Amino acid sequence: MDRPTRPGIDTGLLILRLGLGLCFLLLFTLKQAESTAVFGGGLASKVLTVVLVVAALCLTLGFLTRLASGLGALAWMWSLYLGIASRQPFYNFPVRAVLFLLALLALAFTGAGRFSADHMRRMG
Predict the structure, then answer these.
(1) 29 pLDDT band (50/70/90 cuts)?
(2) For residues 86 and 113, what is the distance between their CA atoms, to the nearest angstrom?
């Protein structure tokens, strides 16, 4: 059985990071009005949205990736709870929260990989 090479793993992490970061940015900047549907209303929702946009930028660049992924995972965990508590059909909204949650947890544990600002910061 072939084991993935380190460049293959790093490339996979880069693709995962870029994909998740861009999805976050598109979700929260282009459809900002929907953030209240995702995270509830009020000031907490606005603060959480700003934190997640900053986390998405960090995630896309690979800067503070574990922290950004952890914050994103917590936010999507909250979103999952809100979706279930509001009795939304699971196939409708909470499944998106689960997918983001799992992908962000994976990045929180693996880190950004070699093609990232985190790696350059450690090397220089």
Answers:
(1) low
(2) 37
The answer to the question of residue 119 being in a domain is no
Residue count of the chain, please give it: 124
- Is the pLDDT reported for residue 23 higher than 50? yes
Three-class SS state of 113: coil
Instruction: Give the separation between CA 72 and CA 101, rounded to whole angstroms.
Output: 8
Cβ-proximal residues to 69 (8 Å cutoff; 6+ apart), any chain: 55, 59, 104, 105, 107, 108
- Split into its structural domains, the chain has a count of 1
Q: Which domain holds residue 39?
A: 6-114
pTM: 0.78
Domain-located, residue 124: no
Task: Judge whether 120 lies within some domain.
Answer: no
